[in-house]
Amino acid sequence: MTYANSHYLLLLLLLIPYVVWYVLHYRKAHPVLQVSTTEAYRHLKPSWKQYLIHVPFLLRCVCFTAAVLALARPQTSNSWKQTDMEGIDIMLCMDVSTSMLAEDLRPNRVKAAREVAVEFISGRPNDNIGLTLFAGEAFTQCPMTVDHAVLINMLQGMQCEMAQRGLIEDGTAIGMGLASAVARLKDSKAKSKVVILLTDGSNNRGDISPLTAADIAKSFGIRVYTIGVGTNGLARYPMPVAGGIQYMQVPVEIDTKTLQSIASKTDGEYYRVRDTQSLYEVYQEIDKLEKTKLNVKKFSKRYEAFVPFAVLAVLALLLELLLRSTILKRIP
To answer: Can you give the pTM of this predicted structure?
Structure first.
């Protein structure tokens, strides 16, 4: 039960001083007859009317309480709610080639991509999300999971050092990265399967071409959003040299046509990102396009429930007046 005018319930606090006043002044409010001795009345049984002496006071309290509750407008409701939730399976496919160290995005491309991806994952608690990394080769850093704490922890370790140190082949194998992500999604039972592919270059490595990987993704009903990262023209790049790092300007070469074709083939979208803020906006747009599906049915109807309290207040008042004017009537 809820109350439409719940502030009226504060009036019930007035009952406390009223009860205290009644107890303290009850004897003073009645006339007293002094006699020399009560010996003659010692063995008389109390009249049944004496047991009713406090009933008017109780009826007054009931009347006041019921009136306040009626003013507060108690309401009851009948409601039901049905929610069907369906998560989306998503693979993040990230380029970790050494060119991702360029600093046209702040602090650099790979760190900006990592920070934005963490925020994206945190906003989708109901989805299975995994992570594929690629440079000249591709591998799964984290399979799809709903344990996003583990995924974010692995994503925090996403760096370009493996390619920089020669642990994996450097380069940009877009086709291999996409194919690796598709392999993780192809057996998924989810109705919506998505790959978000982020790269800053053109495909120059791997045994699978990007368009072939796009055809494979399409055959499994996987939608691919492609993101090309990098400013126009030249980008500031830290080049390791003996004894330190020397910064130089390198050309930004993004195969826009191929990325657009991948997105078009799979009913996805292509986004061109030139700064960190734009990258945030792209992930926000993808987040809106790929919302977790919710089917919510809600019904609610409120009923006014003040009438019984109003009737009780009137009956209590009438009963008190009846008692005071009949069996409990006092003679001055």
So the answer is: 0.64
Q: Are strands 74-86 and 2-3 parallel, antiparallel or unpaired?
A: antiparallel
Q: What is the pLDDT of residues 299-318, one digit of tens each?
A: 556 778 888 889 999 998 99
